[in-house]
Amino acid sequence: MIIFSLGISAQSELPGNKSVVIDNKEKAKVNIKKNEADLSFNPKASSFNLTPEKKPFSMIEEDKWTKPKVTITQPFGEKHAQAMSNLKRDQYLGNIKTSSGKVTIMCRDHEYVDGDKVRLYLNDDIIQPTVYLSHSYYVTTIELQPGQNRLDFQALNQGSSGPNTAELKVYDADGNLISSNQWNLLSGYKATLILTK
User: Fold this and answer.
1) According to the lineage, what is the superkingdom (predicted)?
2) pLDDT digits over 78-136, tens only?
3) 149 near 196, Cβ under 8 Å?
4) How far is CA 12 from CA 17, 35, 40, 121, in A?
5) Full set of structural domains in the chain with CATH
């Protein structure tokens, strides 16, 4: 018995040559001889499209099985202007009392790392002209004077995606966390922490 993949079957006992037309439009013939088969096919007369389908050019690979879980939008217009105008001010980070003679200051960009820079002041004196905020903490130790010690972080820029954002942690000499805060500043504005010894 001979079985063809086109779904045609014939037995080997067929006498002589037989010609079977599969479809008049496609002009494909199967010639069956005793104990052998010959498949003739004319591709020019076929309705089969052998060229791949052209898709529009895209640099984003589409995956029909997954969908994005996060949609990122950039606020514009009146809503964005209102949000930014709320940041046109200095920020007060609190007044911390400590008996410690020195404190360790740690700060980093806890949002999108985009090149934020700050200037660090202690009692109106610049102690670090430029601190680049990255995902790693910038760490410095400060000797405290008796009374109030004013620590200012001035935003030098807003990176590539404003505002200037940072996380701040302050530890006493024994390693105890005495302050934890964040700031969102526009360029030129300051975040102020008072440390009272």
Assistant:
1) Bacteria
2) 766 676 777 889 999 999 999 999 999 999 998 889 999 999 999 999 999 999 999 99
3) yes
4) 11, 5, 19, 99
5) 2-45 (no CATH), 93-196 (2.60.40)
